[in-house]
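Audit log entry. Action: structure prediction of a protein-small molecule complex. Ligand: zinc ion. The ligand was supplied as SMILES and no pocket hint was given, so placement is left entirely to the predictor. Protonation state taken as written. Sequence taken verbatim from the request; no trimming, no tag removal. Recorded inputs:
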Amino acid sequence: MDVSVKFLGAAGTVTGSRYLLDLGDFEFLVDCGLFQGRRELRRRNWDKFPMPPTDMEAIILTHAHMDHIGCLPKLVKDGFRGPIYCTAVTAELAKILLLDSGKLQEEEAEYARKKGYSKHENPEPLYTVEDAEAVFPLLVPKDFKKPFSIHPSVEVTYYHAGHILGAAIVRIVIKGDSQTKKLVFSGDLGRYHDPLLYPPTLIPEADVVWIESTYGDRVSTTVKTEEELAKAINDVFSRDGLVIIPAFAVGRTQLVMYYLYQLVKKGKIPNVPIYLDSPMAINVSKLYKEFHQDHQLIAVLEDTVQHPFQHSQLHYYRKQEQSRTLNDLKGKAIIISASGMATGGRVLHHLFHHLPDERNGVVFVGYQAEGTRGRRLVNGESEVRIYGQEVPVKAKIYSVEGLSAHADQNELIEWAEGFNQKPKLAFIVHGEEESAGVLAQKLKEELGWNTIIPNYLESFMLFEGI
Ligand SMILES: [Zn+2]
């Protein structure tokens, strides 16, 4: 059986997940993500695909993060017309996120045009909102744990990955003339003890595995997230200040809302108004109700009167005017707003208005990448630039850890141990060189796995000698 894979991304880096599988008479992609981060990586988003998108016959998505779906509008714009398989929640999340991404691409091009910093006289967006909308009719939602065919000899099944709502591990069975081969893509793996999501599913069999390695070199310390969050909030409230929590709309926001609800219930923080000021986060939170079978928060499933996403102190602010009223807010209250690294979004105007007051506090709940405003704040800079102005940072800055959506090294190994027999080959993907290297070494030493860390655009025959 001749099956090859070409690594079009997430090779030696964490973004741009795309793997091109070629069965000879059938070519399909697993994930179609954007490259993010450094400029030289982002430039790859503009590269031509190694084959005409019109020749590609299907796409299988693992989950709705931009680094896994963000290139879909470009591919469709360039001629792809096949089915895009994903879980039902992923389809809904993808619509929300791709529209936002299209808008962002348009705004960036417009900004570059105005500022004249682009080499091009008329900088074009990578894709537009309209291009994003053209993806929607191609999305084909599928259930978890129910095998489906994408080709007479290829069957696919989704299993819970525990990473974000709808995130899946993908198992692909390829039936040849004389033999059957099983491929397993981990997608991004979540935590084993997440209060909202099911833990990553253990898969008993695989011939070839693709395993993510975002935190392949890190063991997360057992931080008491809930307590740390309470400590930061109570510290701010002891000064009669306001708490701002920059959070990503998907996953992190809902986890923060869950913890806040628990803390109030246990009497560990006062029952103050909480403002969720992000239309995208509101839309995403609503999906937890619609797709209650895909997570383990029973209260939402049973639609009790009060639960983390619905209670008398929780206010959803969708409109811009509502958001603006928070500029004058003083005293004990909590604002949750995106983006999580304070690189854009409504959280900017909250920071603009509330950073200069020493009573207030900003609580970061996720990793702050280099070069972001969030990182500068966490590093303790005394001024940050927002809307073209230097804003004095008088508010106190806090970092609460333990809300990561990624499995750590131990959890990755735990997942790998779930195979009854070791796979014949494992590709270590979706990690920086260092963390991919450390995980590869661990898998070799502890489980005897045969591992490869692929390079960008490298190809492999999967079953040669198997
Ligand atoms: Zn992800």
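Audit: result stored. The mean pLDDT is 93. The chain has two domains: 3-218+405-463, 225-399.
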